[in-house]
Design goal:
By secondary structure, the protein is α+β, with helices and mostly antiparallel strands. It has helices at 13-31, 37-57, 99-106, and strands spanning 2-7, 62-69, 72-79, 109-114, 119-126.
Length: 140
């Protein structure tokens, strides 16, 4: 189960969040996959942060790929900049620029791959609060 979209404009961030929410809602309805309310919010937050950074730091479009396998969502965002993202040192007085810290804190994995053009950031997130829950119910 996968979906992919290209985004050109910073205003598309809401569209990226909507794509993620609609994809997960559809997967829940059609396949009975359990997606907790917390996971739904976390996915939208991560998508928003990654697409925002792509629009802010890379010229041109970005591509968002969402793929589910075994109850785990893989989120990948490609952009045209080869510059590696960096996490700033913790500073509770700093206003803003905490997005990458947040993404890394809520994700099971975080990886950056250089591409022939640009880079791809890939994170994985568990979709159920209890990965051992096999009921397939919807938590929304």
């Amino acid at each position: 189960m996968a979906v992919s979209a290209r985004f050109q404009d910073p205003a598309d961030i809401a569209g990226a969040r909507s794509l993620a929410r609609d994809f997960l809602t559809t997967v829940q309805a059609r396949h009975g996959l359990s997606v907790s309310a917390q996971a739904m919010g976390t996915v939208q937050l991560v998508v928003s942060e990654l697409v925002t950074n792509a629009g802010k730091y890379a010229p041109g479009p970005c591509r968002l790929d969402l793929e589910i396998s075994n109850g785990v969502l893989q989120i990948s965002v490609w952009d045209s900049s080869s510059t590696q993202p960096t996490v700033q040192a913790a500073d509770p007085t700093r206003i803003g620029q905490h997005g990458l810290e947040i993404v890394m804190a809520v994700s099971q994995s975080f990886c950056v791959h250089r591409e022939p053009v640009g880079k791809q950031i890939t994170v994985t997130l568990q979709l159920a609060d209890d990965p051992g829950d096999t009921t397939g119910g919807q938590d929304m």
